[in-house]
Design brief:
This protein is mainly alpha-helical. It has 4 helices and no strands. Helix 3 packs antiparallel against helix 4.
Length: 138
Amino acid sequence: MELSAFPPLNAGLNATSAFLIVLGVILIKQKAWTAHAITMLLALAVSTLFIISYLYYHIHHGATPFLHHGWIRPVYFGILVSHTVLAVTVPPLAVATLLPVFRKRFDRHVRLARITFPIWLYVSVTGVLIYWMLYRMK
């Protein structure tokens, strides 16, 4: 696989993760517990694939500079910084949110999910936005 295939692949994985996270929330509100669990495990798997793909790409390619100037530059870097800071928190938050399920501590799972959900969704959506700004914006 050529390195140029990785940025759109990573954006697709982020978009898929965002879709699955939202679907998981919809399913739990409908009390579809099994469907919710499967959907959220799929979201976790897709996010894991993203991390592996992202790290592979950046180890072999390095950083991609943002070439645009003007008002969009601070907007891009604001999104990038918030995305990066919050992205570091997603893996431990996701694991911390999942672990209480195995102990049947659904009260703790719900409390943590209320924190994890918006952060994970923001990171997934802004990942797609960063891809668009770096590679597709004219």
